[in-house]
Fold this protein.
Amino acid sequence: QVQLAESGGGLVQAGGSLRLACAASGSNLAFNSVAWYRQAQGKAREWVARIYSGNTTGYADSVKGRFTLSRDNGKNTVYLQMNNLKPEDTAVYLCQLITTAGNPYWGQGTQVTVSS
């Protein structure tokens, strides 16, 4: 089993920044990948970004140039730095880890609200 703890959400004005964290525990996390998704009110869950064990990353077009992933393997934590936030970024942000066996684990989510 893998446990995921998300933090860093909050209320910020448009143009501001937030840094989300996803801390994982409970098993050997080597060779896993971690993704961020978001779900806005009344909308489907949307993939935001993904990072792999070798620190390869990918981003949705909607956040490219504004969001940046990083990973601290020693702390088993993935960070999502969000800059130049826009009202359309408002959503619950969820952390996902997929094991090498293909088993997904999800965090509870953290609310990000961007005001205009």
Q: What stands out?
A: The chain has a mean pLDDT of 93. The longest strand covers residues 18-25. Residues 58 and 90 are 20 Å apart (CA to CA). The two ends are 40 Å apart (CA to CA).
